[in-house]
Task: structure prediction
Amino acid sequence: MIGSLSRPPLLIATNGAYGERLVEIATRLGLAHRVLRRSEVVAITPADLDEALHAWPEVRSVLVVHSETTTGLLNPVPDLAAVVAQHGKRLFVDMMSSFGAIDLPDLAAIEAVAASANKCLEGAPGLAFVLARPASLRAAAGRSISLVLDLADQWARLEKDGQFRFTPPTHVLAALDAALDAHAAEGGVAGRGGRYAHNRDRLCAGLDALGFSRLLPDALQGPIIVTIREPEDPRWSLPVVYDQLVAAGFAIYPGKLTSAATFRVGCIGQVFSEDLDRFLAALAAILDRLGITLPTPTGTPALES
Ligand SMILES: *Cc1c(COP(=O)(O)O)cnc(C)c1O
Result:
């Protein structure tokens, strides 16, 4: 999407590891860019973007991550899109970890979004896609510096004879087809996103009750993944807890992406509230075994969907 459709200079708004990846991609592609960098515990705001676009009027395309999977934070893409449109620029959105679970009400204000088969669509890894308008794709003909990742070329070929230019990932496509049926059967974006939000609420309430401290305030917490601060107790060891969770049948993210000492638990995939209850019980048993008593929570913050 960046190499085929965006036009430099770019403005990349980042508040996490995936925003930084956009910067890395732009750098590798040799695309001139400015970076609007915020801490990973605050959202990119319309005011931030407005200020940056006033400061750098030469910018043509704006890039932002919707669900920043580093922390689980949701950036307010509809509000950001309005600012980008006011400035007459084009907005490109990384919807990798939100597509299929969170609706964007107004795609008219967005130039293109990128996502993949393997996150909220619950397909197999190996296939990424971009939603863009035919006019943008036509205007992008011959611009990509990559042959393989040339979206305009791929689109033209698919329009012409329904073929991929190179060997298609047939099994992954078949799996995505089945995954889309399952997605529709669950009630589409609302059904899928509703289950994830329910998972998130269950997980957050359980973690709060155990005395864990979550990285994000509820207002910024999306439904995809939850980031939890590591307890300060000297008996806590993430590798030990991780191994014991694996032994109990749960795989969490083994490492942290944030600058704070944290671990993450996902709410997506074939995961249901009973699984989260079993997970929370396993985590409580591990704390018990390690002799860790977390501070009693002073009150569970209100949960928002
Ligand atoms: C997972 C993810 C990516 C990268 O996806 P890969 O399949 O690992 O390349 C990019 N952006 C976001 C927001 C993601 O969650």
DSSP finds ten helices and ten strands in the chain. The chain has a mean pLDDT of 95. Strands lie at 10-14, 33-37, 61-65, 67-68, 73-74, 90-94, 112-116, 128-132, 225-229, 262-266. The pocket of pyridoxal-5'-phosphate is lined by residues 18, 65, 67, 69, 94, 96-97, 116 (CB under 6 Å).
